[in-house]
Amino acid sequence: MNNNPSLEKTSDHFTIAEMISGKIPFICTTQITDFQYIIENLPLQSTLSKRYLFSQKYMREPQKIENELNNIDFVLRWKQNNVQKAEKINFLLSQFRDIEKTFQNLHNNLILNDIDFFEIKNFAFLTQEIHILCQDIPFFKIANLDKIVILLDPQNTHSQGFYIYDDYSSELAILRKQMRENSQNDTDLITQCIEIEDNIRIKLSQNLQPFAEKLLQNSAQIAYLDILFAKAHQINDLQLCRPQTAVEKTVYQKIFNPLIKNILQSKSKEYQPIDIELENAPILLTGINMGGKTVLLRTLALCQTLYQFGFFVPSRSACIVPKDGLRLSMEDNVNATSGLSSFALEIKRLSSILDEINEGKSLLVLLDEPARSTNPEEGRAIVMAVLKILAEKHVNSCVTTHYDCINIAAKQLRVKGLKDTHNSHSINDLLNNIDYSLTETKEINAPHEALSIAKLLNINKELLSIAEEILSIEK
Length: 475
What we know:
4-stranded mixed beta sheet, about 10% strand, 2 domains, 6-stranded mixed beta sheet, about 475 residues
């Protein structure tokens, strides 16, 4: 069996946890980093919610995705109209502990201890409170746990603590009274009390066992509510938009990468959002180095991933076609321990992608400078061949390249690039003088601005001089 996951086919039924682990084929380091930034900035209140969130699967059915987005939309509006209730719910959510193991023990007919009873009692109390506040949230359905409250709070005091109450046994109450009146430690009395208490624990566990499934279901519902509240909060925090489900083409207006935007803002720099459309045909994307092409591919991958995990996306507006899978091939897919060269790994990835396309899979394919690590003549031929197949198979795809004379019938977009090199005297000046927006072009040659950029970066003058001399001779 191949030990390199980047060369294996993926089932596209992976969970959030599996994606972040980096063990899923075609998932690369930067893709994980971008997605993890969103997950780590999700303001979950309860410890149980993270486990539930990480178990959620990549969705391929449009209706499932729409249902999730509708629920987020509802919670977003509900929170705006019920500010005080929402604050109370957030507080209650923060009180829930992840006690699934206790519920599983109960489900398996194990005898619980006093701590288990205490946790279940508090879970039931909190569930009652949150149920009252959420009665007008239609998809929040939890089982009634009043009978559990009666079992674990026989005195109806609503105290948070738990112990084996006298109310459970008149015989126990009498023995305890005798122990209080007896100044000496009566071993026989103590033993009798312990036996009765143990029997009560057995009986309580048996009485609670029929509720095990309801407790597990309620736990999932509480976690889901917490996740929806967190997603709704994140919409305003990161300025996300609800993506519309599309059929033919994916369209973004002002798409951006939240992680990179945050990094730039920390350095008092502006992030330039991008408009782009992905149709059932390949896009060939060219532009200068540092022109944001790789970032754009990363951001397209992030948005598709977020959408199919049921999140809003970083864009002013978005219409997204759901896909069977996403295939992102870029330099950090390479596994240096595999024993294969970077070119061999890349070609095997490309071959695997094309095999899946031939099998009828509907994929979003994003290729960052394919065949960059081989000689230009053969590399150019490989890129042209890939584009030809993607065009013939009508694949939603975007391919970046620096190769010249790519004349396959694909839509060609170019990063506009440097606006004014004369006023660029430093790296910061240079970055501020790049226009990252895309323009359609018919040019078959990639931009030749490498030496101009090198000059602005104060690269060794001898190196630049020799390079310019070689270029002038070749022309």
